[in-house]
Amino acid sequence: MNIILAIVLIAVAFVLGLFIAYMMSKRNAKSAANEILEKARLEAEVLKNNEVIKGKEEGMSIQRDAEKQANARLSKVQSTEAKLKQREMQLNQQQGEVQRKRNEVDSLKSTLDHQSLALDERKKEVDRLEKTVRGTLEHVSGLSAEEAKEKLIESLKDEAKTAAASYINDIMDDAKLTANKEAKRIIVETIQRVATETAIENAVTVFHIDNDEIKGRIIGREGRNIRALEAATGIEIIVDDTPEAIVLSGFDPVRREIARLALHQLVADGRIHPARIEEVVAKVRHQIEDEIIETGKRTAIDLGIHGLHPELIRLIGKMKYRSSYGQNLLQHSRETANLCAIMASELGLNPKKARRAGLLHDIGKVPDDEPELPHAQLGMKLAEKYKEKADICNAIGAHHDEEEATSLYAPIVQVCDAISGARPGARREVVEAYIKRLNDLEKLALSYPGVVKTYAIQAGRELRVIVGADKITDEETEKLSTEIAQKIQDELTYPGQVRITVIRETRAVSYAK
């Protein structure tokens, strides 16, 4: 029983403790809430004051900006007003000036009107005086106005004739002074037109390629291949827009041939670089030297000439790569040698000596160096140097009359050289170009309507055109010849001049049976 009572008392005490603790916590919480509320109220008051202050500052800033803008606009308006006032003053001044000038114009106009009236009066007075003077002159001279006019015209005609004659004489004198200059100009233009093909043949070789891609390989990176080729061969290599072709330019035909063969081998092999280029050029140069010597030996054997110095044989071989006025020099020398042998036999002289002199007569055109001597004299010195006989040396040196002829072989060589060079188609163009020029002449004339046949004769110096009598009249033949001549002059290249003869004939054919 005591235990139960003790437990009940403990329980009661515990409950009372809890109640007391609850009441104490409730009072503390209320106090804390009041403190929080008070703090929040104070912070709100501070924020409110801050916002009020900030709003006042912004208002003052807006007011200041508005005042600035208003002041700026006011100053701008004042400036514009000042300009307008100044402009108004200028306009007033200009208006006053215009009014003043208008008054001056009116004054001048009235003055001119008065002067015009005065001029009319004076004109009438002049007319009266003119009539009076004319009548007086006609009375004094005994001539009417028309008769005087005719006499004046006659005198003016005589003066004009005299002046014209003087002017014609001046023109003739001026023409005589300028004729020489004009003639030289015409000759120079003709030389330029005729010499183009020969110059190209003597200084240029065209190397043909399969496609233009090879050009880039020949040039090489940054141009190193083409520089190596030019340095090794001494030939200028021109790579331009010409399709499938490269131009080799140089005065030495042997160098051009070396460059051409070297390029051919390099393109065929495909390996193109500086080291390979130098190797191929050296190899080709050696081959060309061997070929030159072989050509000289073969030529001497073909002509039956023996005992030539090896250097003369080499010079003869070099003639293969040289041309003279478009004629191959070796072919010309062989032709001259054979002609000399035939002529010497007819004259009872030694044909072998004549053939030897004819073959060697132009060796002065292919020396290794280039002394300032005519080729005939240089050839004579070379022949003397390599122990040729005196009559042979004299024939070489005298074939252009630069040395005095001391043997009969000299005039023989001179004549045969002229025969070989002067025959139609020999010089100025190779045979292929000569034949092509004749064909072009005939085709050009055949392209005209009414032309039946064409014949290029006299080595292309005359073109005969036969036309149908039923297609072209006699008057039209002259016009046709002029047109053909003009077209030939515009489109073709030819030496000298070409004569165009148009033939029109009517034939009546009958048969007696």
Helix and strand succession? HHEHHEEHHHEEHHHHHHEEHE
Gyration radius (Cα, Å) is: 58 Å
Instruction: Name the poorly predicted regions.
Output: 424-429
What characteristic shape results from the CA principal axes?
flat
Number of helical segments?
14
Mean pLDDT: 80
Q: What is the terminal-to-terminal distance?
A: 194 Å
Given helix and strand content, the structural type is mainly alpha
Number of DSSP strand runs: 8
Biggest beta-sheet profile: 3 strands, antiparallel
- Tell me the strand order in the biggest sheet: 1-3-2
Instruction: Give the DSSP E fraction (strand runs of 2 or more residues).
Output: 5-15%
Report helical residue fraction. Answer: over 70%
